[in-house]
Task: structure prediction
Amino acid sequence: MICFFIIIGCTPQSQVEEDNWCNQALRAQFSSLEEVKTNSNWFKVYVVGEGVFAIAEPYNFQEIISYLILGSERALLFDTGMGMSSIATLAKEITDLPITVLNSHTHYDHIGGNYEFDNVLAMNTDFTLDRAENGLPHEVMKQEVTSGAICLEGLPAFDTTSYHSRPFEIAALIADGSTIELGNRMLEVIAVPGHTPDAIALLDKENGYLWTGDTFYEAPIWLFDSVTDLDNYEQSIRKLADLSAGLQKVFPAHNTPVAHPIRLTELVNAFGEIMDGTKQPLEEEGSEHVDEVALYYEFEHFSFFIRKDVLQLKGVID
Ligand SMILES: [Zn+2]
Result:
């Protein structure tokens, strides 16, 4: 497990060795998906549903996945990745439709390309507004471009010395229950605060698709940012699990793009076991740095890193 820093909520996902991001094999699930060839050396694009493209960045330890969702009149880009290569250029290769951007939340690994678009929707939280106005400086972002974090061979023009999270313009604010009409496809915003205050899920009820952002993915789920709220998180994952009976596919924001809806119920059960003390953390997992701050709880298809001090406050641990 690699972790470069944890204070502002990084999301290291993988267990590959350092300096291995150029030659690591793609995660097995990708080989079962239809790949869309593009001109990009950085992004990998896959068809994951009807008019739904997963845009993966597998050569960086974050293993971010953004999604381009097509309607008959507009497209929605759900997250814009690390901002290391132009996701606007890539998206225009895939569709001629006008593109609206919406973020699953505004941790920097999901907003990197927002600045390239003039139609960005956003939640009305202080966290979101601050990220839009100020971005994040190179000092905070520099660990993303170390040799152990990224394969730079696919990014010949990328300047690692100035890499930062750029501010972006918000075109309109959205809220829980907002709907986005793309033409023959309506998406509903579901507020799922917890991982961050502005975390949302996106529901395509007709097709049974749910995008979960970082609220759920099949890897270590990080719940130790200072803005993470475990009570809100628990309520939010219950809300998503309640939808699972009507779902065909779940599309998370890291590692692998397609998950079975049953995972949402497993997520609620697993988190409940942690909170009621029946699930014990694995002492030996995680880096030393993580162990100072967080505990690691492992389940079959996913795991959690959770802040020790918050668990103590809640009486889960001594
Ligand atoms: Zn993330």
Q: What stands out?
A: The domain at 28-220+230-259 is CATH 3.60.15.10 (Metallo-beta-lactamase; Chain A).
